[in-house]
Amino acid sequence: APASSAAAGPVDKILFDFPFTSLPIYAALTPQIQAEAKERGITVELTNDNSDLSTQVSNLTAKVASDVDAVISFPMDPASLENVASQYTAAGKLWITYAGDLEAQTTSLKFSFEKSGRMLGEAAGEWATQTTGGAGKVLVIEDQLTQIGRERTEGILAGLKESAPGLEVVSQQQGVTPEEGLTVTSAVLSSHPDLTMVLAATGDAAQGAYQAFLSSGRSETDAKTYVGGLDGNLPLMQAMTKSPDSIARALVTVKPEEIAPAVVDIAVQAGEGNTAPIDLPVYMLTPGTPELQSFITSFGG
Amino acid sequence: MGFGIRNLSKRYGATLALDDVTLDFKPGQVHALLGHNGAGKSTVIRCLGGGASPTAGTIEVNGEQKQRLTPRESREAGIAIIYQHLSLVDTLSVSDNLFLGDEHTSRGLVDQQRQRREAQEVLDRVGADFAPTARVSQLSMGARQLVEIAKALRRSARLLVLDEPTAALSPVESARLAALVDKLRTEGIAIVYVTHLLEEVVRLADHATVLQNGRVVWSAQMQGVSKADLVRAVGGSSHARQKNAPPAGATVLQLEGVVCGSAPPVDLSARAGEIVGLYGLVGSGRTRLLETVFGVRNRRGGRIVVDGVPAGTASPSEALRAGIALIPGDRLKQGLFSTLPASDNVVMPAIARLAAPFRKRREERGLFSQAARDLRLHPADPRLPAASFSGGNQQKLLIGRWLTAHDRVRVLLVDDPTQGVDVGARAEIYRVIRDAAVQRGIAVLVASNDPEEIVALADRCVIFQDGAAVADLDMESVDEASLLAAIHTSPTS
Amino acid sequence: MHSIADSPLRTFLLKNPLIVLLILLVVGVQLSTGSLLTWQNMRGVLLDASVIAIAAVPCALLIIAGYIDLSVGASLALGGVVAGHVMHGSLASAPLAVVLAMAAGALVGLVNAVLSTVLGLSPFITTLGMLTAVRGADQLLSPLPLSGFDASFQFLGIGSVAGIPVPVIIATLVMVLATLFLAATPAGRHVYAIGVSREAAFLSGIAIRRIPFFLYVASGAMAALAGAVTAARLNSAPAGQLGLGFELTVLTAILLGGIALTGGEGSMLGVLVGVLFLGLLGNSLTLLGVTSFWQNVASGLALVAAIGITAATHEVRKRVAARRAQLSAPATGPAAPAASRPESAEIGS
Amino acid sequence: MHSIADSPLRTFLLKNPLIVLLILLVVGVQLSTGSLLTWQNMRGVLLDASVIAIAAVPCALLIIAGYIDLSVGASLALGGVVAGHVMHGSLASAPLAVVLAMAAGALVGLVNAVLSTVLGLSPFITTLGMLTAVRGADQLLSPLPLSGFDASFQFLGIGSVAGIPVPVIIATLVMVLATLFLAATPAGRHVYAIGVSREAAFLSGIAIRRIPFFLYVASGAMAALAGAVTAARLNSAPAGQLGLGFELTVLTAILLGGIALTGGEGSMLGVLVGVLFLGLLGNSLTLLGVTSFWQNVASGLALVAAIGITAATHEVRKRVAARRAQLSAPATGPAAPAASRPESAEIGS
Ligand SMILES: Nc1ncnc2c1ncn2[C@@H]1O[C@H](COP(=O)(O)OP(=O)(O)OP(=O)(O)O)[C@@H](O)[C@H]1O
Ligand SMILES: Nc1ncnc2c1ncn2[C@@H]1O[C@H](COP(=O)(O)OP(=O)(O)OP(=O)(O)O)[C@@H](O)[C@H]1O
Ligand SMILES: [Mg+2]
Ligand SMILES: [Mg+2]
């Protein structure tokens, strides 16, 4: 529900607030947004939230009185940002929620996390049905600390269950970084040497899992092994290009080069009074995906 | 009604620091506790003050027998203690320290005004010339001692315990303290007085007890007891001056117009084998001079020449390279590695010299046992942490560090060498210093507050006043009285 | 005792150089952005600073007493979660929520106190262990974020009394009480004594365990209060995200305020300056539009610079005092005030 | 000196109680999961532990000397990023990558060294500032992750020599060298002396700045080496994610190993035990299938328990030594070796 469609007016300056500054996607995305905006004569400011909720709130609060016309913010905890969002809209600015919906928002840029998780789960389940008759042991590397992580994890589990009920989820472990993925997978591999699938709520953790398989002696192209994750991850995409049989079998991701125009577009459109939300597509990347190379490029590879 | 201890024992690990000791402390009497370093004197005091709990026996307070005391109980029973190692809080003011743990309050808040007023009164009583608002960290050792005494007096104690109170005091301050003790005695306070200075015992004590290895070996009223009797009872040898042949070596150390801080330039020289005493009042600048020569403090001017070569002394390690070593005065703070084993404390500066390039453990052990023997270290256990040695034995560890370690030392600077050291070891330390000077042909500067020590040790004595070297006395013609006279005459007269 | 008249302001500033830096920062950023000193912006800065200050004050007292509490981040989250649960429960009442949150924090503090003061375990590692354990507990208590509270509860975070935001009032109160405690009560003096030397304090008959025990409990309770305030501000209490890394923020503010980890020194004014400095630094970098990775570089270097300037001024102050003492005091008088051990400078402590 | 025969093993275990806990942990988890002691699993644990150990060793030396380095997490990432850049550059060569990574880390160490030892600023806050600043620099150097390295470089992380993984070899080497350094060189002894009392060390002519200076440089270089190893293991070097929170892991391992933050005590064996304990604890919880929130609770409590048991054994050891000495020694004999400072126990330190 657009709280303030009255705040129409040309958008000259936008604030892009993406809190997870340590993620590679942050570094991939921001220059593209800046380039896109520049082409249209719009300036972009960035925040530095260091993946910390209270820093995000402080930084956004500090900018309420500034001359930005629109903010595109990825809320670390949606409820916590309602207040800030209403301050922005009250100040006559546009609030665009990135990956979520707030009551006080002008509009939103949607990514369905549950859906992308489900896509991965279903793809993995189908693969298992085809190659192993739907049997096998699965490790799910989850992220219970953030809202999006929880949604993704739910999607993965639901997708798996629907498409291959015979799969056994032997362990669910917290992990978001490559190091965490590596450590956790190594440990689970030792209690379940016959582990065949790892699905991770982040591509980075999936990459750690991939390395764990390799260093446990699993072949890069082992026919019965499946590693999949959410979000682009360069090393995994590169592994996919190396061989069609790579155990890096699936990544569900958005396309940075679609996000950048969308971010600028939605702000401009909202400024013009059009507050329809934009739904960004997600893509399933597999070793056979033809545009793999273009994804690699847009992720900075 | 009185105070005392009955069959008191205290064990530290394997050390029986007190072994069935019974003592009475009577009102209006000064009871002196004597004995070698590590005999158990401070342990008696720690038991009285609640700093240690006895293993067996009882403590009598006001006619009541107690198994142990907490510090608070001890204080409430009227016991006031001045510990051997001062227990003041550096970051607080004098008056805060005086009332620590016993503050005057009004409506729950500290009554600063009243505290300052009372602090001023008690500071006046001990003759202190600093304000109650001064921070303790800004006071000299002597002044801190006065704070401790004032702290004890303030509580109108009925048993006052002083553990080597004069070890860091000048003769003037000691005399002032003696007068205070006399006055308190007439007020009916029982006093326990620990010291290694037998003069003080003769002058002050009504009763004396000698401890040895935690046991009472001698105890008597002081009427008719002479200093010689005490020396015999303590088991030390009196350290009469053994005259060496006057040193005829070449000049080893020359200070040419050395300026430290705001003091006037100092010229001074010492020859091989010569021991030069530095004598003066508290704050007369001896420590500062020694620290400047050793590179601890910035030298503002002048030259330091060792064996004819100008020595750079920008830091202690440079000074050491130039052949200058210092045994610092505030040894516990400036010297002791309290948690490291005794052997490390002794051999630390020697480790690097012995190593080639790896450490030579056997030689290190040899050095330690040599020092332990020379200085009668007790216990002579290299593995015991330095903190668990008695005060005097900690001093010995540090003296041992410098008297054994450095072959290359040409100049030895010694600040207050026998502070807190017992009579027997005192003689040993003098012998070790003298031997080092004569046999190794090094020049020694000894700063001391004890005229007796200067007489016993020095070949020559330089008198300090207000940071300046005002007189140079040949010790052949000097005794303690003339030394005392020298520091109290003004340099202009 | 000073024979040369010195302006009290100058002495004060020499003693608290960070204040000068703070003023320079404020003036500089205000001139270049024009928006630092707006009421709106300062309100945000003060609100952030208040939350830090509420938890930092008892923590600073612990450090002065020679202890440390690294578990405040988890206690903060605990406070938020407990308050959130109460507000979503059947007895929803803002005062009850605050009281129970503080009680839960106090419980964590109690465990810290028993471990560190009664059992004498290393405060650093026990409170670090508690940080991890309590953080786990927070998430178990509230795996999903609680949000959407009564206005009565939100008042704690976004309300104002006489135009002053409630968290600022609380922080001011805490700070004033702590200042009074330190300066004017016996226990306050004892905090310093314990920090300098537990042994000396013990021998003076001071309750060397009871005071830090109480401070640990206070630290837990205050961190939880800060958590309740944060939850009220956010109108949400996400267990996994509240107070992440908060312990380091608090510690940094305290250290910036000139309170040494070795204990025995420091003042509440220092804490205030440290907290404000941290808050204004982050805010200024954001207002200046410094890009994100450069912000990290800049704020890290600013920390180093701040501590460097404090140390340098300290040095200057000592020199000045020493020179002045030389001029005024007789050479044989008692050691001059403030002229402390020249050696230590050379050792570079 | 011991009149009652005691088994050296028993003495050893009483001195290093964490080893007992470690063994109990291993046996318990092995019995209930059957997979802890598989080669596959131990290999994983050892690899993780090696990375921690490489950085923890010089860090522990710094702590023994009374300093601290909190910037190791950022130096680790820096090492990974620099090595990654070299491997993607025109001169791609694994040895060069390692050397340049270590040089970059050493540079960070150098800055820390100048700030903390030469200028004498608070090591805690300066290295904390450097942590933030260097982390920012890491991300500026490599905003996008570098990945896909030569096999020659990956060998550093996943290769083996004679069946032993390369990181384990490196860690062992570092540990052995440090043990030798501490025990057999004068500088090693000086580290303890400086840690106990800088002033006393200074007056003993010890290079009180040079030694910690060198240790800071070593700490930076070794953390960067650990970073290169990690990058090789992961086959990628994501600047923002490498070594997040690593400084706390390292510090925890060191403290668990019985090295006190006050300086002056500790051994490399302690670091080894601490590192292994941390690694095995996390691994065991994963093997046992404990869910993530409970893992936090359990590992926090395990830390507290570990430090508690160490302290309790210490106490027992003192008592035993005292009793034994009473039985065997004559009343006035020298003190037993292990009986240190009973008062301090009475003060409850
Ligand atoms: N904390 C301790 N731990 C172990 N042993 C101790 C401890 N304190 C004292 N001792 C031992 O107890 C014995 C008695 O020490 P005490 O301090 O009472 O001696 P003292 O007579 O005061 O000696 P000094 O004249 O040197 O001060 C010594 O052998 C000493 O090593
Ligand atoms: N820690 C200090 N800080 C500042 N000034 C000091 C300090 N210690 C001594 N002084 C000053 O330096 C001057 C010389 O003192 P020094 O300690 O060298 O005298 P001393 O002859 O060794 O006396 P003492 O008997 O106290 O050892 C005195 O004016 C004293 O006030
Ligand atoms: Mg004694
Ligand atoms: Mg002196």
Automatic annotation (TrEMBL), chain B:
Pfam families linked to this entry: ABC_tran (PF00005)
Keywords per UniProt: ATP-binding, Cell membrane, Membrane, Nucleotide-binding, Repeat, Sugar transport, Translocase, Transport
One Gene Ontology molecular-function label: ATP binding
Gene3D superfamilies noted in UniProt: P-loop containing nucleotide triphosphate hydrolases (3.40.50.300)
PROSITE patterns: ABC_TRANSPORTER_1, ABC_TRANSPORTER_2
Top-rank lineage group of the source organism: Bacteria
Domain spans labelled ABC transporter: 3-238, 240-491
SMART domains: AAA
Protein's name in the database: Ribose ABC transporter ATP-binding protein
InterPro entries: AAA+_ATPase, ABC_carbohydrate_import_ATPase, ABC_transporter-like_ATP-bd, ABC_transporter-like_CS, P-loop_NTPase
Keyword Transport: yes
From TrEMBL, chains C, D:
GO cellular component: plasma membrane
Keywords, comma-separated and alphabetical: Cell membrane, Membrane, Transmembrane, Transmembrane helix
Membrane topology: Multi-pass membrane protein
Keyword Cell membrane: yes
CDD domains documented for this protein: TM_PBP1_transp_AraH_like
GO molecular function: transmembrane transporter activity
Pfam families: BPD_transp_2 (PF02653)
Membrane-spanning intervals of the chain: 18-39, 46-68, 88-111, 118-137, 157-183, 213-234, 240-261, 268-287, 293-314
Low complexity biased stretches: 329-349
InterPro entries the record matches: ABC_transp_permease
Region (Disordered): 327-349
Localization: Cell membrane
Protein name: Ribonucleotide-diphosphate reductase subunit alpha
